[in-house]
């Protein structure tokens, strides 16, 4: 398909790990991004991964990339209530002038 | 805290008004972007400026008019908007436009626009 796909909702308990999944479409995307959006705010760049990597870790965040299946995931360890937000994955469409194409966003709800 | 500053934070205007949204960054970025975002939806690209020149216009209606007076400033002039134009308008910037390697975009907090 033409869309970057994410599941819409995820609910976890505080202290658990969260895994947010994304399926992208452009196999030639060189970089893939994760953004976080809290209520009433803009998008905050969380992390990105280069397409020749299969994993990137940054403190509580782990990004896994399966290029064969065009599958990207974001794992948040020890999830806190402050992690409650909408998370967007995004790919670059090289054949569309380098446009950033976002998934629909996954709303993460962290319960105490 | 965001390094891309947008003003105003909120704007309410009638369909016959003319207003402008402003965006400023001092990170030395040479690509700047306008996005429109409806509630609980992903941002939709409207315009891209690269080195102060319009690079991408995503077939946006002419009632939206972008302007890039210098490398730090980006404006969006609004005239005769419709109720369906009510949305969050986000500005973003990156060192270069995406075709030149990894150029993550940094977003402002947006202007929440309501059209009466």
Describe the structure in your own words.
The complex is a heterodimer of chains A (112) and B (116). Chain A starts with a strand and ends with a strand. The model of chain A has no long low-confidence stretch (mean pLDDT 92). Chain A is an all-beta fold and 112 residues long. Chain A has no helices and eleven strands. In chain A, strands 2, 4, 5, 9, 10 and 11 form a six-stranded mixed beta sheet that branches. Chain A has a five-stranded antiparallel beta sheet with strand order 1-3-8-7-6, with no helix packed on it. Chain B has 116 residues and is mostly beta strands. In chain B, strands 2, 4, 5, 6, 9, 10 and 11 form a seven-stranded mixed beta sheet that branches. Chain B is globular and about 40 Å long. The termini of chain B are far apart. The mean pLDDT of chain B is 93. The interface between A and B is medium-sized, with 25 and 26 residues.
- First-last Cα distance of chain A: 37 Å
Helix content of chain A: under 10%
The whole-number mean of residue pLDDT values of chain A reads 92
- Which quaternary structure do these chains form? heterodimer
Radius of gyration of chain A: 14 Å
Order of helices and strands of chain B: EEEEEEEEEEE
Unreliable stretches of chain A: none
- Low-pLDDT segments, ≥5 res of chain B: none
The largest sheet of chain A is: 6 strands, mixed
Rg over alpha carbons of chain B: 13 Å
The share of residues in extended strands of chain A comes to: over 45%
Q: Based on DSSP secondary structure assignment, what is the total number of beta strands of chain A? A: 11
Q: What class do helices, strands and sheet pairing of chain B give? A: mainly beta
* Chain pair sharing the greatest interface: A-B, 25 and 26 residues
Structural class label of chain A: mainly beta
Task: Characterize the biggest β-sheet of chain B.
Answer: 7 strands, mixed
Shape of chain B: globular
Shape of chain A: globular
Average pLDDT value of chain B? 93
């Amino acid at each position: 398909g033409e869309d970057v796909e994410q599941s819409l909702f995820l609910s976890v308990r505080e202290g658990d790990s969260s895994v947010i999944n994304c399926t992208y479409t452009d196999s030639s995307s060189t970089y893939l991004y994760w953004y976080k959006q809290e209520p009433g705010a803009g998008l905050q760049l969380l992390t990105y991964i280069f397409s020749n990597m299969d994993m990137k870790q940054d403190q509580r965040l782990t990004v896994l990339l399966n290029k064969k299946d065009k599958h990207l995931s974001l794992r948040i360890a020890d999830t806190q209530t402050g992690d409650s937000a909408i998370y967007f994955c995004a790919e670059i469409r090289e054949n569309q002038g380098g446009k950033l194409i976002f998934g629909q966003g996954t709303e993460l709800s962290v319960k105490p | 805290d965001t390094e891309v500053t947008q003003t105003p934070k909120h704007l309410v205007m009638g369909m016959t008004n003319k207003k402008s949204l402003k965006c400023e960054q001092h990170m030395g970025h040479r690509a700047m972007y306008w996005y429109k975002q409806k509630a609980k939806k992903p941002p939709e690209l409207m315009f891209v400026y690269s080195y102060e020149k319009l690079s991408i216009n995503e077939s946006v209606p002419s009632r939206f008019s972008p302007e890039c007076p210098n490398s730090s400033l980006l404006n969006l002039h609004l005239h005769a908007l419709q109720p369906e134009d009510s949305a969050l308008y986000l500005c973003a910037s990156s060192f270069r436009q995406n075709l030149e390697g990894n150029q993550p975009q940094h977003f402002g907090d947006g202007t929440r626009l309501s059209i009466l």
